[in-house]
Design brief:
single chain, 367 residues, Rossmann fold, alpha/beta, 3 domains, 4-stranded parallel sheet
């Protein structure tokens, strides 16, 4: 099979390793760009959310490049993500593309489609090869998440020196190319040494701390959120986020082994939103509460236009903002959003947080 899948942050790196490890040829869609936006918007329903449109554009580009199998995630609950794959299949077939869809539904959505997908993906591989491919993909996922966390923590102190970007870019390339676990661990170790050494060489400076919350695709995909994390780093802001690829896998696929994710989310969100509303809605509320408790300087919610779970969460956030005196910026994005406008709003928000921080520090000195 010539397998493809949608982009989402650095997801293509471990997923490609997994499918190649299972013996398949992988057709990675081109990096999401303006043409991807145009393709998805042209053929998707007008009021479909932005992730749906971008995923559709990814699939069209990959099918044009020779892919014959599309692997797509599924979902349960109120979020429309659970219907993405079926609707996208109808659209692509109407456009004349001949392919098979393998749907990876999470536990709770039934086992028929998931069992079919696993059987077809793993039928040519031995048990040993399957375990090896899974291990490789998982190690890459964890190291990518840890590497990104370290980069986001240190970059605000180092920029505008672009050396840190080069080091991080090299790290991503090396993780992508390497298929030996022991070498992957050494690559990560070397990366941490380089980043920390670079941090020691610059003068300390005050930075703001912001938590990024919202719909997972919009948070993780830099081509859609206008490189939000990098832009914040340039403005002297530490960008923190709880959402990650490995966290999603732990909670939604192996939740029985990682129960702390759900317990933490429910405990933090309960005073404001005790019910599951689909997607990452409840998690958005929980992480905003966490930001208030831990004295973050602000929160940025990133969501696609018409996203129901995030709209529900958004209705609760003003109350949390008042309770914790926590500034919140709402970035509601679709295919018509403009980079210049988003960056202008970010700059204004950073100025607001800086003024509040100075006022808070002054009050603390007086008292």
């Amino acid at each position: 099979m010539r397998v493809t899948f949608p982009h989402m942050g650095q997801l293509s790196i471990p997923v490609k390793a997994l499918f190649e490890g299972l013996g398949h040829e992988v057709v990675v869609p081109p990096v999401t760009n303006k043409f991807t936006f145009e393709l998805g918007s042209k053929y998707a329903p007008e009021f479909a959310c932005l992730p749906f449109k971008i995923n559709l554009g990814n699939f069209i580009e990959a099918l044009e490049a020779g892919a014959d199998t599309v692997v797509m995630g599924g979902g349960v609950g109120p979020c429309r993500f659970g219907y993405y794959a079926q609707v996208q299949r109808e659209i692509l077939q109407d456009l004349g593309y001949n392919f098979q869809l393998l749907l990876l539904d999470p536990p709770g959505a039934g086992t028929k489609e998931l069992s079919k997908a696993i059987k077809l993906l793993a039928e040519a591989a031995s048990p040993g090869r399957i375990l090896s491919a899974l291990r490789l993909a998982w190690v890459k996922t964890r190291l990518l998440d840890e590497g990104n966390r370290l980069y986001r923590m240190q970059a605000p102190y180092i920029l505008p020196d672009n050396t840190v970007r080069q080091i991080y870019g090299d790290f991503l390339d090396q993780i992508d190319r390497e298929n030996r676990v022991n070498r992957l661990l050494k690559i990560y170790s070397t990366f941490t040494v380089k980043i920390n050494q670079l941090r020691k060489e610059v003068k300390p400076k005050p930075v703001l701390r912001v938590k990024i919350i919202g719909e997972i695709y919009m948070v993780l995909e830099p081509k859609v959120n206008f490189d939000l994390e990098d832009r914040l780093s340039e403005l002297g802001v530490e960008a923190h986020r709880q959402i990650s690829m490995s966290g999603w896998v732990e909670e939604h696929l192996f939740g029985v082994f990682f129960p702390h994710h759900a317990k933490r989310r429910k405990c933090l969100a309960k005073p404001y939103l005790s019910a599951f509303v689909g997607g990452h809605g409840q998690e958005t509320v929980a992480e905003t509460v966490d930001a208030g408790v831990n004295k973050y300087d602000g929160v940025i919610q990133v969501l696609p236009f018409t996203c129901m779970p995030e709209i529900v969460a958004q209705s609760v956030l003003p109350e949390i903002s008042r309770d914790f005196a926590l500034p919140i910026l709402y970035l509601v994005l679709d295919e018509h959003s403009a980079e210049a406008g988003i960056h202008t709003r970010l700059e204004a928000f950073v100025d607001l947080m800086a003024r509040k921080k100075r006022a808070r520090d002054l009050r603390a000195k007086i008292m």
